[in-house]
Amino acid sequence: MSARGLVPEPESVDAAEGGFRLWAGTPLACPPELAGVAQWLRGALRLPLPVGAGGLDLRLDPGLGAEAYRLDGLTITGGSAAGVFYGCQTLRQLLPPQALRRAGPADWPLAAVRVRDRPAYGWRGVMLDVARHFMPVADVLRFVDLAAFHKLNVLHLHLTDDQGWRLEVPGWPRLTETGSWRTESMLGARQHATFDGRPHGGFYTTDDLREIVAYAEERHVRVVPEVDMPGHMQAAVAAYPQLGAGPQPVRTSWGISPHVLNLGEESLAFCRAVLDHLCDVFPSEVIGIGGDECPTEEWDDPDRQPWFTARMAEHLADRGRRVYGWDEILEGGAPAGAVVAAWRGAGPASVAARLGHPVVACPDIEVYLDYRQSDDPGEPTPVGTRLTLADVYAFTPVPEGLSEKERELVLGGQANVWTEHMDSARAVDYMTYPRLSAFAEAVWGRRSYEDFASRLPEHLARLDALGVNYRPLTGPRPWDARPDAPGNPRTWPDRLAELREMTRRLPSGGPV
């Protein structure tokens, strides 16, 4: 396996003389602060790696920078435990793909190389929507493993939406009894109004969520939870009609529901209870409140959302946390310190940074992995604009035209996996990989697609060993198609026109 096959590509890789052998008798030395990384590495390599000198050596050097690392033969030095962990992931990629499997001999040759590496951005995230289609805990943990393998460090977990509520909240049992399942689901894009006639549901217990958090922390992935409010709340209103304008079922169709929270005192108390529970379970400094796509037809005052967002921000501040919201929270003024997920193009990212808000760039026409991958009619449920592997690789988090101070507010980027049309982990694999591999390299900091494409076949061998149902580079296979779930392909000009209209209420106009 060539060192040139590494993804994301390190800052530098140099061959050295000699080589090594990793086997059951290889010793491992590390300070107590790296015991967790060492334990993870033993499991990942399927080797006992007894404590001792003369083999693998894990070290800390705070002068490197928190997520930077050096790999010199069998010595891995990181600026923190996270940096050492990334060095260990690079070590795994230097081994033959067989080393990534759970069966077979655990005895591998390793070429001697010197690697120097550090990421360009601190927020290298991926959002997983488990509201539209529920994903069991084991599949979420596998999703975390694959993200961590690519040195991504944030999992934004979209836990609720009109079509399903996926977490317990103490004192509100009907959220899971009623709000966690729907009678059927749409097949394909909503324009076709076709349904499958099958109930769909599921939710995470508090212990489930704590398991996900702990598992992710071991892999240096921060889990950022999101409960969308005050819109995208039809599932909650189905469970507790007094929170909205009256009884509604859990939504079965895709799209935006007009049935939102009524912003009365009970609704505010409900939202505070939800946020308290998220703060109790998730240690993340930022807590997602959504804030996007909220119709106001059910409200007497259509301009109340900024007031609501401010109240939720105040409550989170009392818990030592900050709001994380979609870029609609800029309309009417986002709370001080709010982190903005800029999804409607480069304009909202620029506006947020100029207003002094930390920004995570996630523009839909560049990093929404539910969007179709080609014009091939065999693509499953083709929706959105065409977003090829090369398009994703070309993503740059920082918009043009910002000052140096404003550029520093762009924390990084995030790819979003919306699951209306992904009803299984297999379908998520197909839509996510290898585009997420390209995204991971884009936010790590390397910038040559041609070089990435030349390394990708070696990386696909790793994905094969990890059992990933990625989209072949040659295009969809016959069984990937979904003729029962037709899509709605869009063009770039049409989508750009929509985004310009959608962002006209941003401060200073906010051009896309």
Distance between the termini: 43 Å
Number of domains: 2
Using the 3D structure, state the CATH architecture of the largest domain: Alpha-Beta Barrel
Low-confidence stretches are none
Pfam families: Glyco_hydro_20, Glyco_hydro_20b
Catalytic activity: Hydrolysis of terminal non-reducing N-acetyl-D-hexosamine residues in N-acetyl-beta-D-hexosaminides
Protein name: beta-N-acetylhexosaminidase
Active site: 293 (proton donor)
Q: What features would you describe in this structure?
A:
- With 512 residues, the protein is α/β, with parallel strands linked by helices.
- The protein starts with 11 loop residues before the first strand and ends in a 10-residue tail after the last helix.
- It is an enzyme of class 3 (hydrolase).
Outline the fold blueprint.
Blueprint: E1 12-22, E2 28-29, H1 35-45, E3 56-60, E4 69-72, E5 75-78, H2 81-94, E6 108-117, E7 123-129, H3 137-149, E8 154-158, E9 160-161, E10 164-165, H4 174-177, E11 181-182, E12 200-201, H5 206-218, E13 222-226, H6 234-239, H7 265-281, E14 286-290, H8 305-318, E15 322-326, E16 339-342, H9 346-354, E17 359-361, H10 364-367, E18 383-384, H11 389-393, H12 404-407, E19 410-417, H13 425-432, H14 435-444, H15 449-465, E20 488-489, H16 492-502
Parallel strand pairs: 2-3, 3-5, 7-8, 7-19, 8-13, 14-15, 15-16, 16-17, 17-19, 18-20
Antiparallel strand pairs: 1-6, 4-5, 4-6, 9-10, 11-12
Helix pairs in contact: 1-2, 3-5, 7-8
